[in-house]
Amino acid sequence: MQDRSTAERKRDNQGTTAIVLATAFGALAVLAFQAVASRSLGTDSFAPVAVLWTVMFLLYTVLMLPAEQHLTRALVVTRSPAQIAKVRRDMLVAFLLAMIIGVVFTAATLDRFFEGAPIYIGITAAIVLSRSIMATARGSLAGNRRFAAYGGSIALEATALLLGGILVAIAGWSAPAFGLVMALAPLATLLARPFRHDHIDMKHMVDAQQGEFLVWLIVATAASQIIIAGGPIAVSFVGGSAAAVSVFFTSFALLRGPITSAYNLVARVLPDFTELAHGDNSDRLWAWAPRLAVGGFAAAVLGAIGSGLLLIPLVTAIYGVDFAPPRTAAILGGAGVGLGLGALFATQVYSAAARSRRLAFGWFVALVSAGAVLVLVDIEPVSLVALAFAVGEGVGLILLGLVLVNHDGNPLRRVDDAHG
Question: What whole-number distance in Å separates Cα of residue 138 and Cα of residue 144?
């Protein structure tokens, strides 16, 4: 990593604090919004909002968040206007793909998940549009190391979401109104003035690894996010009722809180990891992978214990007794979250080094492992999907933290990017 002045380090530290505090506030705001919506609507009527949130989360993390990270990384490694313009065109393709997938999925499952109401098609399109704007804004903030403003953007979106949800509940409006709040809240990010670029002197390193890098990053992210966020849909497809979908969604909304919050911290880590990857000693970057694996397994033990003890009382207190999950699902889910945290930060090692093809390989194997659990194990739906989640995250962490790291002589080193 290049040396920074004392003032720059102080600014970065202040920005990190802002991101951490805003992330904590954002997590609480999301839980409060979901609690308000679930209590206002009940288990059955809340199901469309749960699925809409799942679709939003998957589209954002699979297509829009990689585009954000692509822009962040590009702004770190190059200041070429032509390359940045190419990156923005790549991002637009990802956003259009998200729009098509979201609208088609919602239209195709209106009767199954959305009570046959066509308004959800428009809500899905609005969510994709607003979150695409948000992803572009945040990518610009992180790439320009405006970390304090990045934290501000998190707080602004969270505030808009919570206030909108409270307004809808007070007015007594139905589920689509909560969906409209989800579509409007991301636009509050623009109040952080994200496109007012700070001109930072940074050396031109290598090209921004465009095109193929983003494609494989999206593939990798798709596999990982299906494991993390596809649970409510999986519960339905393995025979769970609408109530079971709501139970899984609310329980794992709490459980996934640390992972969801950590996405914001990725914006702080990725620029530094990228500079390590392109510095004189890139081994300093790869040394982080096994450390993160150890941390992930330690977090899994703590997560299983803590979730086994606390999740059911928390869910009952926040959402109501009808949303309480089986204890087995709580324990498995807590372990999976710990593993997922380690895997998320290990993923950034590969993103920073532009090893997105290798990253995609690791997460594809993890997804297949999770799918095998759904096919081969026969237990009640909520616990079954929780087990698949934990297995998928564990396999991903082992591969990314230990097996696929960039050591000389690694037999799997051939699973790499063309530019690696």
Answer: 10
Q: What is the DSSP secondary structure assignment for residue 63, as one 8-state letter?
A: I
340-366: pLDDT as tens digits: 999 999 999 998 888 888 999 999 999
Q: Which of 22, 36, 67, 27 is nearest to 189 (CA)?
A: 22
What's the burial of 244, exposed, middle or buried (CB within 10 Å: 0-12/13-18/19+)? buried
Per-residue DSSP letters for 281-337? -THHHHTHHHHHHHHHHHHHHHHHHHHHHHHHHHHHHHH-GGGPPPHHHHHHHHHHH
3-state secondary structure of 11: helix
* pLDDT tens digits for range 45-94: 888 888 888 888 888 888 998 899 889 888 887 767 778 888 888 899 99
- The pLDDT, as a whole number, for residue 4 is 60
Contact present, 393 and 343 (Cβ < 8 Å): yes
Burial group, residue 53, by CB count within 10 angstroms (0-12, 13-18, 19+): buried
* Terminal Cα-to-Cα distance of the chain (whole angstroms): 19
In this structure, of 158-172, 264-278, 301-315, the range with the lowest mean pLDDT score is 264-278
Q: pLDDT higher for 9 or 120?
A: 120
What type of residue sits at position 69?
Answer: Q
Contacts of 331 (CB under 8 A, 6+ apart): 304, 307, 308
161-202 residue pLDDT tens: 999 999 999 988 888 999 999 999 999 999 988 887 644 444
* Distance (Å, whole) CA 45 – CA 173: 12
pTM: 0.75
Reply yes or no on whether the pLDDT at 271 is more than 90: no
Residue found by looking up tokens 């087995």 in the block: 328
Cα angle at 203 between 200 and 209, to 5 degrees? 105
**Cβ contact 90:67 at 8 Å:** yes
CB 357 within 8 A of CB 216: yes
What is the chain's length? 420
Asked if residues 65 and 267 have their Cβ atoms less than 8 Å apart, the reply is: no
